[in-house]
Every structure is written in C-alpha cells, then in structure tokens.
Amino acid sequence: QVQLVESGGGLVQAGGSVRLSCAASGRTFGSYAMAWFRQGPGKERELVARITSGGSTNYADSVKGRFTISRDNAKNTVYLQMNSLKSEDTAVYYCNVVGVWGQGTQVTVSS
Questions:
Q1: Structural contact between residues 22 and 5, judged by C-beta atoms closer than 8 angstroms
Q2: Rounded to an integer, what distance in angstroms lies between the CA atom of residue 10 and that of residue 31?
Q3: Around Cβ 69, how many Cβ atoms within 10 Å?
Q4: How many CB atoms lie within 10 A of CB 30?
Q5: Which of 53, 55, 107 is nearest to 81 (CA)?
Q6: How far apart are the two ends of the chain, measured CA to CA in Å?
Q7: In this predicted structure, what is the pLDDT of residue 27?
Q8: pLDDT at 108
Q9: With contact defined as beta carbons under 8 Å apart, do 96 and 5 qualify?
Q10: Which of 99, 107, 108, 110 holds its CA 20 to 30 A away from the CA of 87?
Q11: How much is the pLDDT for 106?
C-alpha cells in the first residue's frame, strides 16, 4: 500500500524559511513525477511545484524564485524548500505521487 507522510510544517514569520519533506513508502517512486500542492483557507487546492523523474521542475508563478522542489530517489523522498515566505503562503501543503495524497502539513506564516 502506497503511503506518503509529510513533515516540516509549522509557524514561521514572514520572510522566513521552511523545508517540507514527503517520505513515500510502499513502492519505489524513482520513475514517477512528484508534486507539492497547497490549500489555503477558503481556497481550492493548487499545484505549487512538480519534479519529474529526470529532475525537471515547474512552479506556480506565485512561488517562482522563492520555492525549490527536489527529490532524493534513494530515500523515496521529495522536498520543498520555501524561502521568503509571505502570509499568502499560509496553507496546508500536500504531496502527491501517482495519484496518492499525503495527510498534509500546515504552514502558517505570520506577518
């Protein structure tokens, strides 16, 4: 059974940084794209960043230049480095691999 477990969220001040991790288990994900989504208060879930099996990345315009997605295939883990955080980045962040969702991790940015 595929499972994804996110970690690393919390309360951070505007301008600060946080790194999220998503550990996958149940199968090997090296040949699959991995992605981070987020859902802010009263908003729909949106794609934040995606990384292919070959390491190509794409980002939402709102996070370009501030967030970096990376992966460690040996650890079956995807990361999201979030810098220069803004209050509008406050959301529950989810990782997604092969259609499976993690439980989410809350990131709250205080202004």
A1: yes
A2: 30
A3: 23
A4: 12
A5: 107
A6: 40
A7: 82
A8: 98
A9: no
A10: 99
A11: 98
Which of 39, 20, 38, 16 minimizes the C-alpha distance to 85? 16
Residues in the chain: 111
Least Cα distance to 20 among 30, 10, 33 occurs for 10
For the segment 6-23, the average pLDDT, to the nearest whole number, is 97
Structural element, H or E, at residue 97: strand 91-97
Write down the pLDDT at residue 28: 81
**Using CA atoms, how far apart are residues 10 and 25, in angstroms rounded to an integer?**
23
Residue type, 2: V
What does the DSSP 8-state code read for residue 43? S
- Beta strands 18-25 and 77-82: pairing type? antiparallel
C-alpha–C-alpha distance, residues 107 and 48, integer Å: 13
